[in-house]
Amino acid sequence: MKLPRSLVLILLFAALPATLCAAWITDIVVMSSKGAGAVNFSHYTHLEAVGNNCPSCHNGIFHIRPEKNPVATMKDMAEGKSCGACHNGQKAFSVKEGCSSCHPTRDIVFKNADAGDITFSHEAHTGMFGCSECHPDLFLPGPGNQRRTMQEMEQGDSCGACHDGNAAFSVKEDCENCHQM
């Protein structure tokens, strides 16, 4: 069956804008985030979610030129600004939960020459608790946290806020649970 030339032209012109847009869109855009790790935003994932409708975000919520976008805090997003316009728990997962969906987590190694290095597992802890149970009250996301002594932890500072023998094993015992000896 041969398609009429006019139908072929209509199909080509209908597909042309999407094809041209896809050619210049960078899929992964890395957005810096003070302390919480860089956020890898995928255009392709989001385009699929909004039916390839670029104007659903550009130039309403986000400017097409990233340098023109205002900086948004997590509080701003929770109030519906920036990513929070869609990530509100109704259209998409809420910015108030599932932090690691956007912010990467990793194991953190604390060097300790005297008692053995300590590896903090985000995976183990986020499997039991939400990020907000530690961040930002107990620990700042990212670098900049003050080191605490074991005595300070035994008095409830830092890890000792939970590792008190009630909520979790005590920092006073079971040293090998944290320290690589």
Let me know the number of strands. 4
Name given to the CATH architecture of the largest domain: Alpha-Beta Complex
Overall 3D shape: elongated
Rg on CA atoms, Å: 24 Å
State the name of the first-level CATH class of the largest domain: Alpha Beta
Sheet-strand content, in percent, reads: 5-15%
Output the CATH homologous superfamily of the largest domain: Cytochrome C3
Helical run tally? 5
As for the CATH topology of the largest domain, it is Cytochrome C3
The biggest sheet, with number of strands, parallel, antiparallel or mixed sense and barrel status, is: 2 strands, antiparallel
- Give the CA-CA distance, first to last residue: 75 Å
Low-confidence stretches: none
**How many structural domains in the coordinates?**
2
Question: Largest sheet, order of strands side by side?
Answer: 1-2
Percentage of residues assigned to helices = 10-25%
Task: Name the average pLDDT.
Answer: 85
Oligomer classification: single chain
Please identify the structural class as seen in this structure: alpha+beta
Order of helix and strand elements from N to C terminus: HEEHHEEHH
Structure notes:
The chain has 181 residues and is an alpha+beta fold. The protein has two domains: 97 residues, Cytochrome C3 (Alpha-Beta Complex), CATH 3.90.10; 70 residues, Cytochrome C3, CATH 3.90.10.10. It contains five helices and four strands, in the order αββααββαα. The strands form two sheets. A two-stranded antiparallel sheet has the order 1-2. A two-stranded antiparallel sheet has the order 3-4. A hairpin with a 7-residue loop joins strand 1 and strand 2. The radius of gyration is 24 Å and the shape is elongated. It starts with a helix and ends in a 27-residue tail after the last helix. The model has no long low-confidence stretch (mean pLDDT 85).
